[in-house]
Amino acid sequence: MPGVFNLSVDEAVKEVREAHSLGVLSVILFGLPEKKDEIATGAWANDGIVQQAARAIKREVPDAILMGDVCLCEYMSHGHCGIVEAAPQSLGAAVASPPAATTEYEIVNDATLELLARTSVSLARAGIDIIAPSDMMDGRVAAIRKGLDEAGLANTPILSYAAKFASGFYGPFREAADSAPQFGDRRSYQMDGANFREAMREIELDLEEGADMIMVKPAMPYLDVIAAARERFDVPLAAYQVSGEYAMIEAAARNNWIDRERVMMESLLSIRRAGASIILTYYAKEAARLLG
Q: For 167-204, how does the pLDDT look when each residue is reduced to its tens digit (9 = 90+)?
């Protein structure tokens, strides 16, 4: 991903300050912990890397609107978005955690919700303004909403990755964040790209559970989903132009196959035209310079 870097806390502060000066008022934070484990401790620890960054950014750029991605994959030793256990092979079989790479496994949905809620509260207390769960566990929005309310953080909004598809476009990010699953894949909890009706149902369920905003991810391969969501749901609608979308434009431009600046802006326009009121993109600063 040319031009995109993992940043230390001090460099993240500089990045947010520059973005803010260009008119990019909101950023979303992802974290890479020093150590990973089987319960994603780095995600919800008070001194976690995102918590540290949020506090530092708020000290230096207090007007910045900080979104915090809530998922456990970057913090789990196995790279999945939830707690993993070996699937029982027969009635009464012992359950081990985590399984070996060759063992049948399952994602333990309900136990994961507790960690997601704990992470959300920790991030909000550190200064994150908007909680953005991307894990795709069932019931996560309700669990997070309950956790925030009980912690006295009832005014913290939730931007749910409501329609997050099991996509091949996430590859560059997973490599950069060292978050690819060590075994299996995420198709059991992320969405089937062919199932349009499920996307609408997932969005509806998240709104019923208390989401304030919704997101479709990826963006360009799912412009029809963005358009349908815009037509059906009267809430702020985000779309995430993901790493693979960015990388394709960059690779083609470096081979002089396309006009980079023109295609970059055309891609963002297509997402906006489809109905997104919020765009998450690696091109934010560059687009802001051109628009300004």
A: 889 888 767 665 555 544 555 567 888 999 999 999 99
Let me know if 146 is a catalytic residue: no
Other CB atoms closer than 10 Å to residue 240's CB: what's the count?
25
**229 three-class SS:** helix
- Residue 206 contacts residue 141 (beta carbons within 8 Å): yes
CB 169 within 8 A of CB 244: yes
Residue range 53-96, pLDDT digits in tens: 999 999 999 999 999 999 888 888 776 777 777 666 544 444 44
Cis peptide leading into residue 98 (ω within 30°)? yes
What DSSP state is assigned to residue 160?
Answer: E
> Looking at residue 22, what is its pLDDT?
97
Tokens of 138: 């069932």
CA distance 185 to 107: 11
The candidate with the shortest Cα–Cα distance to 234, out of 206, 219, 214, 216, is 214
CB 39 within 8 A of CB 108: no
> What is the residue extent of each domain of the chain?
12-218
- The SS3 call for residue 210 is coil
For this structure, is 58 an active site residue? no
pTM of the model: 0.88
| C-alpha span between 127 and 111 (Å, rounded) | 26
Going by C-alpha positions, the residue among 9, 173, 167, 16 that lies closest to residue 79 is 173
pLDDT > 50? residue 110: yes
Residues facing 84 on adjacent strands: 107
Whole-angstrom distance, CA of residue 100 vs CA of residue 85: 10
C-alpha to C-alpha distance for 238 and 271, rounded to whole angstroms: 9
CA atoms within 13 A on the CB side of 42: 18
Q: Which CATH architecture has domain 12-218?
A: Alpha-Beta Barrel (3.20)
Residue 223 near residue 265, CB atoms below 8 Å: no
